[in-house]
Design a protein that fits this description.
Elements lengths: L4 H15 L5 E7 L3 H10 L3 E8 L2 E7 L18 H11 L5
Antiparallel strand pairs: 1-3, 2-3
Length: about 100
């Protein structure tokens, strides 16, 4: 299945932010049918990825440059409550945590 230009641009933008160090981690939900093409774009940018199925036909893909970030992904809070959970997500996703 060919990926549409809008999604392709979105993936490329996420990859650029990770490559340039703006974000340590970027995540993007997408339809499973686009998975192979998304992975191809990530590899073209010389980045790493992991993914998980979030519902029938849908995945979330995590894009990162530093391979050690993959060890944090399983422990990321789905619904952050504490200040430290918010700070961790903010730091990884490129938000100002001050």
């Amino acid at each position: 299945m060919n990926i549409n230009e809008s999604l392709k641009s979105q993936i490329t933008e996420h990859c650029q932010m990770v490559s340039r160090g703006v974000k340590s981690l970027s995540l993007l939900p997408h339809q499973e049918r686009y998975y192979d093409e998304i992975v191809s774009i990530i590899k073209e940018n010389e980045l790493h990825y992991s993914s998980e199925i979030i519902s029938d036909g849908w995945r979330v893909i995590y894009i990162y440059k530093n391979k050690t970030v993959r060890f944090l992904i399983p422990d990321l809070p789905q619904k952050p409550i504490t200040a430290s959970e918010h700070a961790l997500l903010g730091l990884l996703l490129g938000y100002d945590i001050n």
